[in-house]
Every structure is written in C-alpha cells, then in structure tokens.
C-alpha cells in the first residue's frame, strides 16, 4: 500500500509579495533520511539544516514550498548522496532515491540533472584542477594571457552550448537557463580570478608592465560582466565564493583611516577576518556575517568577538532570519553549558602505546571499540560532531560497543582539546594519542602513510582491527550497514 505525507513551508523574500508554490515529492526504495537546506535571508545556505525527512519505501512525502524568486536548495541524504535543486516557483518535481542514484522528474528536471551530474555531484575540484592546468601550461618563461583567456572561454562556452541546447529543445525555461549559466560562470570565473591574482604575487616569472595591466583588465572585465555587488548573487550556489575575493581585494585598497571608519563604534575585533564585507550591500553583508557567526558556533572557533558581532547584527538587521537563528543557537549553547553532565565524558590520562593497550583500558576492555580519530584544528572532524546524537543512538543499539575519541593534537593544544571535549559533549572515552600510539596507528591503519582525518575505526574485544575505514557519522545509514556486517554477523 502506498501512502503520501504532505509538508508545507514558506520561503519568503523581503520586499517581494507574491510567492509561488513548488512541490517536491520524495520517493525512496529503502529507509533513508534527507536533510534539506533552504535559503536564509534570500541567500544560499548549505550548513544549517532547515528540515529533515525520514523516508520510507512506498511512502511518498510531498514537501511544499511557497517561494519567491530564484532558490538553490541542497538536499543531503544520510548515506552521503547530495542533490541540488534549482527552483523558481510554481513547479512540481519528484526526487526518486535508490542505491543506483537519484533521479529527478518534473519542470526543468533535465537541466537539474545536467548541473548535478556534470558539476555539483562530481564536485568543482576537477574544474579547479583543469583551470590550474591551463595556467601552468602557459607559464613557460613568460605568461601567455591571451591563450589562458581563450581556453577559459572555451571551457565556459562548452557549458553554455549545452545549456542553450536544453533551452532550444524546450527542456528548460529561459529563466532556468539564465540561472544555470550564471552559477557556472561564477564558479569558473572565481577560479580564473584566483589564478590571475596569484600571478601578481608569484616570483618565478618576472611580469612585464603590460602583463600586469592585462591581468587587471581581465579581472575588471569579468566583474563588469558579472557584478559581484549584484543583490541576487548570493542566491546562487557558487555566488558566495565569487564575491569573497572581490571584497577582500577591495578592502586591501583602503587606507588606515578608511579601515578605522568602517568599524567605528565596534572595533576591528568585532568582525575579525570578515571586516571586508562591511563594504558590501545589505543583501551580501547580512548572509556573509550571519553565516560567519553560525560557523563560529558550529566549529567552536573564535575569529571575532561574538558579543560585539551579535550586537552589530541585532542593531542593523533586527528582523532578519539570521539574527533569529543566531539568538536561538546562543541560547541553546548557554543551556547546554549549564545542563551538560560531564560524568559521561571520560578523559583517559594514562599513556596508551598501542591499539592493543587501548582495548585493555578499564571500562573499554571486553567491548567492541568505535574509534573517532580527530583534532581540534580539523573542521571536517568538527562537522561530523553535528551527527553525534544520531551516532550515539546507533552505537547504543549494539551490545558492548563503546565510543573512543582519539585526538592527534600536540601537547600545546591540551587546553583547547579539553575545552572542545566539553563544548562538543564527546560522551565516551577521550585521550590524546602518545607518540607510540601514533606510530602504531600509522603502521596498522595508514600502512605507513600520512594521517588523514577524520577517520573511523572498529576494533574487536581483543583490539584487533575489524574495519580500518568506516563511513562517517554523516552517512549514518552506510555506517549502520557496515557495523551490522562486522558486529552482528
């Protein structure tokens, strides 16, 4: 029997009155969850989960959105799969998940398939490498900027031709075609500009005055054709990266007096490295500063004075979604620090010299051991801590399985390590690895190679390795499959 669940939400744009309903129907052939990242204050968001849906076979969920204007909405499945939706309102789409991949049907679906399969799912890294390669091939003794620009335009024209073909075949609307073309240009041009600016600071090749002039002309031409101060630019998925370098460069041209005037009443420490975005219009400044604040809370870092930044945002954008989210997160952090019972957090102070020794620690011995290798400076590690509640719910389903957090931090990070244990509430056993344990892990887990973290490992009751590279907690369904296979067989 098939069932249908309907969820209705509103995404609104300040200053826009008329919203159009879009319906996304989620199907699945297996149990899986999907996290949905809706825009915040009309800007693309890929770090704050808006909604999480638990999908079941034979039960379709209609997720209704009343939206205004262009919206890039990311969907992240619990097995690590991702899909980017590009919505403009008045659409009906179906996302069908299976082990073979994600398929989409509905308005502009072929355009979204093209973007996801060729750009989003493989990741931009391969195009970044291609652009780096274009530069390196044209830097022998002197710089051939005309050849570099020609090859970049050739790369872009390939995407544009494909998008125009979809439009001519009436598979996407003109508005969708324009949005897709813009986002790809933001991505490619961001890397192009990064490499062009890099030429100005490299020392291997002596630049001629005409080279410097041509580099600056190229950058100015790009910014003229794709203005980084456009109020809608942060709606795009690659817009944030594109504008970042622009405002940092703009700030670098200010004199001391202009910089002091920019932070008047708050001080530079209120904004830290995000001071350049005070030069941006509100449609860019708010999402950048608000997003930066959320990142501070999420990763437990202190790049600026959070109280001063909060005062600035509250004074300038009191009705914004970001201020509401930040206020809620600050209140939750305060409550957590008051209510957390640290008796479930155990810090092992004895020196442990091997994984075998670890399995003999009181409280750990005679149990399976789930190891999380991490460090205080590792942001991907900290990102995974967001899934600790789901992780511990899963680990508790197995008899005799204990979590152990092994930090590879050096002695000088001792205080920060202990602080992070409490802030992230790492329930279970915690220790910083000794030189000897590090050597043992490097030999057994990394086969003599370099430490790459985060890394998740499963040991049996005797300290023998059952799995030296488990899926991450963010892919909880894949992790469950692996643990079932190793522990319950």
- Outline: globular
**In whole angstroms, how far apart are the ends?**
32 Å
Largest sheet, spatial ordering of strands: 10-13-12-11-14-15
Rounded to the nearest angstrom, the radius of gyration is 25 Å
Q: Uncertain spans, ≥5 residues at pLDDT below 50?
A: 10-17
> What does the largest sheet look like?
6 strands, mixed
Q: What's the total count of β strands?
A: 15
Overall structural class, as computed from helix and strand content, comes to alpha/beta
Average pLDDT score:
90
Relative helix content? 40-55%
Task: List the total number of helices.
Answer: 16
The fraction of residues in strands falls at 15-25%
What do these coordinates show?
This protein is of the alpha/beta class and 489 residues long. It contains 16 helices and 15 strands. β6 and β7 form a beta hairpin. About 2% of the residues have low confidence.
Summarize the structure.
The chain has 489 residues and is an alpha/beta fold.
Features:
alpha/beta, 489 residues, 6-stranded mixed beta sheet, 15 strands, 44% helix, 5-stranded mixed beta sheet
Helix and strand arrangement:
Blueprint: E1 3-10, E2 20-28, E3 32-37, E4 51-55, E5 59-67, E6 71-77, E7 82-87, E8 92-98, E9 101-106, H1 109-120, H2 125-137, H3 145-168, H4 174-201, H5 209-225, H6 239-252, H7 256-262, H8 282-299, H9 306-316, H10 321-339, E10 345-347, H11 355-358, E11 368-374, H12 379-384, H13 388-395, E12 401-407, H14 414-423, E13 428-432, H15 435-444, E14 455-459, E15 465-467, H16 476-487
Parallel strand pairs: 1-5, 2-8, 10-13, 11-12, 12-13
Antiparallel strand pairs: 2-5, 3-4, 3-6, 6-7, 8-9, 11-14, 14-15
Helix pairs in contact: 2-4, 3-4, 4-5, 4-6, 8-9, 8-10
